[in-house]
Structures are given as C-alpha cells and as structure tokens.
Design brief:
The complex is a heterodimer of chains A (about 750) and B (about 200). Chain A has about 750 residues and is α+β, with helices and mostly antiparallel strands. Helix content of chain A is about 55%, strand content about 15%. Among the domains of chain A are: about 10-125, Pleckstrin-homology domain (PH domain)/Phosphotyrosine-binding domain (PTB) (PH-domain like), CATH 2.30.29.30; about 145-310 and about 425-470, ABC transporter transmembrane region fold (Up-down Bundle), CATH 1.20.1560.10; about 320-420. Chain A contains 25 helices and 19 strands. In chain A, the strands form five sheets. Chain A has a six-stranded mixed beta sheet with strand order 13-16-17-10-18-19, with helices on both faces. Chain A has a four-stranded antiparallel beta sheet with strand order 1-2-3-4, covered by helices on one side. In chain A, strand 6 (about 80-85) and strand 7 form a beta hairpin. Chain A starts with 8 loop residues before the first helix and ends in an 11-residue tail after the last helix. Chain B has about 200 residues and is of the alpha+beta class. Chain B folds into two domains: about 15-115, no CATH class; about 120-195, no CATH class. Chain B has a three-stranded antiparallel beta sheet. In chain B, strands 4-5-6 form a three-stranded antiparallel beta sheet, covered by helices on one side. Chain B has a three-stranded antiparallel beta sheet with strand order 7-8-9. Chain B is elongated. Classes of the chains: A alpha+beta (about 750), B alpha+beta (about 200).
Chain lengths: ~750, ~200
Amino acid sequence: MNLNFDLPAEARHAFTPADGEEIRYCSPVDIGDDGKMKHDGYLVVTNRRLFVISGSEVKTELALADITYLKCDPLVNNGILIARTVQEPEERILARFTMKHVSRVAFIAKGALLLRDGVPKQVISREYDKTCPVCGRALRGTKECPKCSHKPSVLWKFFKLCGAYKGRLAIIALLMLGVAAVQLIIPKIQQVFIDDYLKVGRGGMKEIIIYAAILIGVTIFTILLHVLRYWMCISMGTKMSMDLRQMLYHKVQILSLSFIQDRRPGELMNRIVDDTIQVRRFMEEAFAGMFSCIISMISVVVVMLTMDWKLTVMSVVFVPIALGLSISFRKNIHRRFHMQWHRFDKTNSGLQDILAGMRVVKSFGTEEQEAEHFRKLTDDFAKVQERNEVFWASLFPIISFVMGMGVYVVTYFGGVGVLEDRFTVGQLQQFINYTWMLYGPLGWMTFLPRMITQLMTSLERIYDVMDEEPLIRDNEQAVERDIKGEVEFRDVTFGYRSYEPVLEKINLKVKPGEMIGLVGASGTGKSTLINLIMRLYEVDDGKLLIDGVDINDLKIEKYHSQIGVVLQENFLFAGTIYNNLKFAKPDATEEEIIMAAKMANAHDFIVKTPDGYNTYVGEHGYSLSGGERQRLAIARAILNKPRLLILDEATSALDTESEYLIQKALERLTAGCTTFAIAHRLSTLKDADRLVVIDGHHIAEIGTHNELMEQKGIYYGLVTAQLQMQALKGEEPEAVPAGA
Amino acid sequence: MGFKNFEGADEEFNLEQMEAETEAMLRLRFLNSYNAKFERTPGGFVSLDIPVGEDDKPEHYDRVRVVRSFPFTAPDSYISIRTTEEKSKEIGIIKDITKDVTKETRKMLEEQMNLRYFTPVITKINDIKEEYGHAYWDVVTTEGPCKFVIYMNSSSVVSLTDVRLMITDLDGNRFEIPDFTKLSAGELKKLDLFL
C-alpha cells in the first residue's frame, strides 16, 4: 500500500519546506469539513511537520515535536485523524477520509509519531490497495496495477515460460499448418468432382466411389491431425500448469511465515490451484484454437483472393459487422445470465441458511415463515430463468442468421456469376465453403478477449507470488550443526511490523537441558519469543545465539530437524497415524515408532483403534479426541529426539485423565531437553527450572516459583487471580499425582 | 506450593471489580435534557456533564461517542452515549432524540452522528459498467459525485427493505439508495443486474 502519494503541483506550493525538510508520508484525505467528498485534500508528513492541505491552502500545520497524541479513529464507513498538541491539549479532528484511506492514515499516524521520536524507521504497509490509486481499476490481489506499472509485462514472462516448451510448440505449429492446409483442400476436391465429373456427365459409379473414398481419407486424416493437435495442447497445458503449481508451492513454502499470515489461506490456495488451472484451460481451449483460427482465416482469404477478388471483398466486408453484432449479443446474454446466476446464488444461500439453522427454525416454530421466504426466492429465480430461456431460444436463430450474412451475399453474387458463366458451379460451391470457414469461428472468437484477460489476471497473481523475495534465507556461511541446546537472547528486539515492537531488548540465557516456563497475559509476546526460537521470523535487532552461534549462521533445515514442537491445536495431516508419526523422522523403524508412542502414552489407544497404526486420521478419517491428538503430537516430537523443545499450551483444554497422561508423557519428553513452555494454567509449569514473566515487551520477572512468589510481583498476582477464580467456581484443588 | 491444578484465568483481574462491571452493564439509564448536559468541544467533539450521576456524584466526560442502536431502522431513537476508550462503556441512552433533548443538543448530537456514519445517498446513476467480476459505478450522491468499484457478488448490494438498497464497495465504503423505484427507467436498467 502506497503511503507516500505524489502531491499535485498545486498542493506542493501550499507550503515551503525548510532546509533538509522532506515529505515522508502523504495520503489523500477525501472528505471535507462539510461532509462532502472532495479530491484535493492531502495529509502530508515531513520529517518536521504535519500538514493537512486542501487545494492550494494549508488548513492545519503542526510541528511534529508539539504533537502529544495522534491516532486514526476508524468510524462507520469513514475515519478521522485525531490529534492533541502541547498548545491544544483537547482532542481535535485534523482530517476525515473514506475507507479507502483509513488503513493508510493509520500507518502514517504511526510513522509520524516515530519521526517525532527520532526513530529512523520508515513505516511500510504490506497490505495491498483494493483499487489502483491511479486509474481506479480493481486490483485482484496484486501489489501494483498491471495496467499502470508498465513493468516488463506478464505477457513477456509468459512467453519466456513458453520457451521451455519449444519442441512441443513447434510440433503444435506444424500440426496447425497441416490442419489449415487440409481444410483448404477439401473444398477444392469437391470443386473438381462437381465440375470435372458430375456436371459434364463423365463420371460414373466408379468416380463417385473414388471421390467418396478420397473424401473419407482426407477427413480421417484431418480428424487425426486434430486429435493429435489437441492432445499436444492438452499435454502442454497440463505440464505447464503442473510446473507452475510446483514452482508456486515451492515459493510459498520458502517465503517467510509473515507472507503467508498476511494473506487468507484461501487466497494462496486459489493461486496455487485455480490460477494454474486457468493457465491450463487457456492452453487447452484457447491457445491452439486462437492460432489455428488466425492461420486458417488468413489462408482462406488468400485462396479466395486468387479465385475472385471482388467476391472476396464482398464476403469479407461483413466480417466486422457480424463480429460487432455478436459481441453486443454476447454482452446482453452475459448480463441476463449473470442476473440468473445472481438469483441462483441467492436461492442457494437462502436454502443453505435455512437448512443449517433448521434446529432453530423448528424450536421457534417459524417453519411457515421460512417456507414463504424460500418460496419467494425460488419464484424470483424461476421467473428470471424462464425469461432468459425464452430470450435465448428466440435469439439463437437470429444470431445464426447474422453470422451467415456473408454467405448469402456470396451465394447471390456467385449465383449471378455462374449464370453469366464467369464461374463454374463447383467453384461457387468451393467459394461458399470458404466463406463458411471464414464466418464459422467468429462466434467463438468473441470469447477470446475474456479468456485472454482471465489468463492475464491469473498470470499476474501467480507472478506476484513468484517475484516475492523470501525474508529468511540461509546465509552463505551457514553451517549444519548438531546443537546442544543452549539458547541466548542478547538485546533482542522484534515486532511483526517494524514500527510496533512486540519484544524489546530481551536478554536471557538458557542452559542446555533447562526448562523455562513463559508466563504473561495474552498478547504480551510469549508466542512471539517462541516463534523467534523456531526461526519463523528473523529478529529485528540484537542477536539470538544457539550454543553461542548466531541462529542466522545455522542451516535452517538441519536446525529445524532438531526442534520438537507440541502446540495447543496440533495439526495432523490426512493420512495414517503411522505416516503422521513418521513425518518427523521419515526413516524411523516400526520399533522406534512404537517406543515413541509408548513414551507418549499413545500406544494403547492407537492399538485399540480398528486399524491400529494404519488408522486413517485427518478430514473424513477416524476422529481422535483432543488428548489423543496431543499424545500423537508428543510421540511425533519424541521420535525426533529434539534438543530443543517447545510446548505452546500443550496441556490446555483437556480432561483430567488425559492431562495426567500427557503430563507424564511430557516429563519423559522434556528430560534432558532445553524446553520452553507456555501455559495459562500455571500449575503445568511446576517442573520449570525458571519462570520468565513477560510484560510490556520486556522480561518483567525471572526466577523459580518460590522466588517469584516472594517478590509479590506480576507472577504472584497471576497465581492469586487463578486461585480466586478457583474459589469462585467452588472447586477443590485436586490432589497432586504421586511422583509429580 | 498451593497452586496446583486449577482452572486458569489469563489476565490479572479483580473479582469484585469484575462483578461490579457486569452489574453495571445490565443497567439502562436514559438521558434527557433534565439529567444530562452536552456541550461542543473546541476540537469538534461533544462533552457530557451529568450533574447527578451514579451514587449522586456528578459525572463528567471530555468526549463521548454518539452511536445509533438501530442505524438503518430507527436512526433517531435509542442513541447510545458511550465513552471513547477501546472497551467503550455505555454512559446512557437517549430514547428519542427528537423529543428528549433540546433543539440545540439535538443538532450537536446529529453532527456527531453525521461524523460517525458516512453513507452517501445515491441520487443519480450515470453509469454502471461491468468488467470481469467487478462493477464500476459512476454516480452522483448527496455528498458529491463519486466513482467506486464493487465485487459482483450478492453481498455487495443488499436489500434492506423491498425498495431500499445498501451498496458496499471494495474498500468497505457504503452507499445507499433509499428507494430504487424512484430512479428513472434508464437508471433502473443499469441497476437491473443487482436487483
């Protein structure tokens, strides 16, 4: 998202920048004081001042140093920028704008405050604009407007991509030429047959049979060529979309988590699946047809010209007319069917709504009402559908008629030509055939612009991902190392957005084998700390050392293979339990797997399922309880023999029995491992060697349970709060299991 | 160690305070010209004084939010007056802004609501062009001429009543057509696709 628009000249002259003063952020603000929309308002932030400009006039000027408070307040369908200054401690409205700029102004407000504080960081927004700020066109999930950015175009990239399939393309081109040639020959054969045999009465049964045989032979040959051509195109399309899909998948996987988290999962799915299918469909349906149409149309015209140029001109004249008419028909038809689709969609979602809420409908006894509602919807749909079908049925013959216009003209003038002996009957027949060949593909060609646009959109989205640079990559001097498990944070600062630190100046040294419990209110950065250890993100400032080596100097894959992770919601892939366990260590033997499952207290329940370790889990598979999934995840982690273990809420939301089993399993797992554990239930952290309380982006307290209780700080507060909650529910604390 | 195996709460909290807050949320206090005094602030907002508030203590708010409870169906009734912080709390409700407060107060509250709710009313449709899954609108609204883009799906144009339409564009801006039957035949034809 652009946070620094170019100011129009008029607005630029509104203020005179001081020495060394330059514009850092600029956004349009498009609602005036009177509540009317306007197009000449701008919010400008330089490294010293903030301006709100209207036209060529500065409405507000604030020195950044005077600002005490600056915030974008999103209201309903618009937003306002509020400020307080040293001189005017009251909150006041600086500017008002539509939703188009709300998020932009929010970013700029943060940027302005950073500038005020002398922080040199430039705020950037990874969000995408919904519409192109220049031309107003809707952007389909790309950073820049493909029409306005003038980058080496996607089409060029597409040609380069096609270059990889040169051999196939050459064969396809040859086949297309072959098809065109054969198509031209058939009318010629007919002409010879009519003129030289039928008309002059020389032909007998023998000639008819020979002619028929030739025609059959040629037709079969054409069919073969066609089949071969389609086959080539389809195989090329499939290959291409497969290659693209793999490239995309690979790219998405190496891109950092932040890229994926900035987008909805469905969006990336669409790019990998739908957009590549779009490319394949284009290659199959349009690509071959497009070129063969052009080739055959050109060659038909050339041949026709050699026969009779006047007649050719007459038949060609109607091509643009027929084309224009069929395009306008198509628009109309599209509109009508879109309306039908719209109704259909409404009916569908109405039905889905009612069926999904059937329990509520029945319990409130509103069946009649809902039935009436649905009747209205289907009624509406049926009406539109009926109208459209009638329209289509009556329009189709008209379209065919229009499409044949050239042929009628040729028939008439050609017929006159035959009567005047300028033509033979066979030649007329040949000519009419060629004319049909000219008009035949027109209907289909009106689809082309739409197909090409779809292809371009898909390609743009695909290349938008492909061109993204991964933020986390292996260093050149990265080494593979077996780690011992010492972790040290040295002045680590990190934020998901560069201007919003979640962790600030964290210093912590963890000995190999130590267990650290992370405590703090939600949103304080516990999970962030863990994300850094897992190296899903790179620290902004400071160093994270593993065994004294910068984490960036370790080969990512090798490092990850030595970390075990058990989360609150553990993801199991669709597949068997066996495969899910082996995921951590592909070469594990059955015995190792059983041992790991036993250690995780999972073996027994696995064997009890009908298919044992071969039980299929995942969507549509055997459903495991939360505790069972958890134990599988622990077994998966144990199998890996990790040196570093991460437990993120590993024991929340479980019944007491499975919690006990999991607690035991975890004890076995954590033995000798450097462990970082997050838990809301402080009781689960009882085995921790040290507890780290994170509050306000910093490590607030650190020490053993007893030490922290004595300090009577945040940790003490959390523990007493939980005890109070306990008292409120009237539950007795359970007996501590033996050995715990 | 006395803290084993109990249900967790994730934030520091004070039991009594929470109970008091949940109680307070139940209360419905109506504000009117007798018990509440609204005033414009220099910054363009509205402040509120309640001389005799909770426990007979006076209450003062530097700035309040003015929020409609039924923005579509009853824009003048049940106006919720709220505090401005993130976990905005309700100070009170004005049952009917046309009756319960003075003209002057009504004007000032309406200004605040006009600020909060920005929904231009479409008065004229110049053009609606459909292109590959999006529709480009060119309209005249009560707040000036405007061009915007919507997705071609059923949630972009919603019927609030049989004749009233609410249109939401790609960015989340909203536009209203109070009665589409009053549009000209030509405009209706352009709109046809969405009805």
